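Q: I have 464 residues here and want to know how they pack in 3D. Can you give me a structure?
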Amino acid sequence: MPMEKDTVNLADVKVQIQNGTQQQQPQKTKAQLKAERREKQEAQRAAKAKLKEAQAAGGGKQQQGKQQQQGKQQQGKQQQQKQPQKPDKKDVQKPSENRQLKKTDDTLKSQVSKDGIFSHLKQYDKKSPPTSTLSYSSSPVHPAFVKLGIQMARETIVGSNGRCAALICAVKIFIQQYRCPKSKEIRQHMNIALKPCFNYLSQCRLFSVSMENFVKFIKHTISKISPDISLDDAREELLSECDRYFEENIYLAAQAITTTTVNRIKDGDTILIYGRSQLILRILLTAKEEGRNFRVMVVDNRPDLRGVNACERLTEADIPCSYVYINSATYVMKDQVTKVLLSADALLANGYVLGPVGTAMLALIAHKYNKPVIVCCETYKFSERVQTDSILFNELADPKDMLKTKTGAASPLSDDPEHHNVNLVNLVYDATPPTLVSIVITEIAELPCSSAPVILRRDGERRC
């Protein structure tokens, strides 16, 4: 019994001693606790910084090792390249074959200019014409359009009026041979059938403004065909509309422009023309028939040199002519020329005249010497497009034509290896500002360039 009391008392004593010591220890303040936390955080940050430094030191050594290995590999490759390798007999080419390959490479480089500011323009490649992708057994393109596309690509049909007239003829042949399924309407199916034909032509060569306007006209005319009309009656109606479009916008318009322009030609005039235009030639020949005495200065430009044909036509009609290149236009314009007579491929909505490349240069020279610049343009060539330069919209002709010489000899650029980086560009059109044009003669009236939106609005109301 006494032993049990002793043990109990000892346990109680231990509990009492522990409670006493806990009560005797003083409690820490908030500031002290914050200080302890800061010390722990600083210790952890210091440990992390040491680890990062150790890792960086180890990574730098690894990178140095990798750089040394790469350097050794490059040295080994250079040594292998320096060692001459014996070519196989199959790979050996004769000097004549190497020359031919160089020539083909040079011509290919000179054919297509896809660098710089003209990279967005399409260049037609004569070696791979669009006809190479056509299957003649199941092609949706009518043969008349195939023929016209090849003629346009080879430039056998030139001029905005000539190309538009050829397109009208192709559409008429298509309409004459058109067959509509019984389950479909004529106006819907015909537009669908014409779409691949027009797409094919645009791949061969870009549409001129005159062709674009006719395409809009024929599509609008087809859409107005009554669904109750028979196929024969629809053919007659469409063919008559095509004939009316050609007669009013091309044939009769040319007569009206000729009559108005001839009245501006006086005796003793020296008229400067550029290149060859059927409308301008018609005006000059009519003026000669009416007994006007005048001289003609034909300015021409490479590579087409179409002014030669114009000079031949005028001399056959006993009209005195002079033939000069465009680089001599300043000398001729200063003292000899009294009027400048130019044709246009289009008149844009902002008054700019789209014509053969070189037209803007002649208009600028004439403006400098205070010579009147008369532009002859049919109203069906007016366009709603706005353009202030010759880069945004243009055509690229064959650049190999730039290598042709007057004597037929090869150009120095064709085979010279020093000029293998030369990119030839053969532009078709340029834009003439309205400030350089004195007046535009149309079949309606003599108008300033700023009146183009009025004509466009009138034509739009007539279509509606």
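Q: Anything worth noting?
A: The two ends are 129 Å apart (CA to CA). Residues 220 and 464 are 9 Å apart (CA to CA).
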